[in-house]
Amino acid sequence: MTIVIKTEEDIAKMRVAGRLASEVLDYITPFVKAGISTGELDQLCHDYMVNVQGTIPAPLNYCPPGYTPYPKSICTSVNHQICHGVPGEKKLKNGDIVNLDITVIKDGYHGDTSRMFIVGEGSQIAKRLCQVTFESMWIGIEQVRPGATLGDVGAAIQKYAESFGYSVVREFCGHGIGTNFHEDPQVLHYGKAGSGVPLVKGMIFTIEPMLNAGRREIKEMPDGWTIVTKDHSLSAQWEHTVLVTDDGYEILTQSAGTPAKPEKLAASA
Ligand code: MF3
Ligand code: CO
Ligand code: CO
Fold this sequence. Notes:
- By secondary structure, the chain is an alpha+beta fold.
- It has a single domain, classed as Alpha-Beta Complex (Creatine Amidinohydrolase).
- The chain is about 25% helix and about 25% strand.
- The chain is built from four helices and 15 strands.
- It has helices at about 10-30, 40-55, 125-140, 150-165, and strands spanning about 55, 75-80, 80-85, 95-105, 110-120, 165-170, 175, 185, 205, 210, 220, 225-230, 235, 240-245, 250.
- Strand 7 (about 175) and strand 8 (about 185) form a beta hairpin.
- The longest helix has 21 residues, at about 10-30.
- The model has no long low-confidence stretch (mean pLDDT about 100).
- One cobalt (II) ion binds next to loops.
């Protein structure tokens, strides 16, 4: 296990890749409406990345050991789909919740970010899950500073999520990122404060908690990629790519449309 500590040159390129990934989400936001298919969202994002940004969609043909090549350019995870939802002909309908997960490569460096979208008028139950998941991601981010540990990040997320009766998915986690899509360390979204890898200035990793409204168990679909909740309960996820700085963190996946830090955390810097 080798955690790459990024140089100033690496960091400058990661800022660009992170902003571009976030700008894909800004671009696609007005299209996320009832009646559009997840495959159409994929095609729009693909064309924007390749033809407008000059970025490479990192998911396309991505093939970790034991997997088949990922067939699309983004991940679209709807309702009880937890992550890695493969875009297709399924149309969004009013009340659906959908995670759009974008990873671009620019100049050899990766930016990875995802947001939740509520299609039309969502139920209170759906809105609350999406909001609490957003807050969980932020509570994890707020732990990040030199000397804190990855266990502090996971424990804070788990404690907050479970206080609402939600469960935290264990099988998928955040990850180091740079010239590789997924590198060390693994960033678990549960755990024990004070345990695990101590954070050091120059580390870059994602924080991307997946919260289920029901039980935490998962199931993989026959496509070999799409992950769903075993009990069919709703699931939500948010993701940012984060740099450890001298005295805290810098979010690299920021753009004009990035949702602001939640009100209830705003006091804490
Ligand atoms: N973007 C996802 C993550 O946050 C990984 C997707 S892998 C893919 O780590 F192949 F499904 F795109
Ligand atoms: Co990620
Ligand atoms: Co992602």
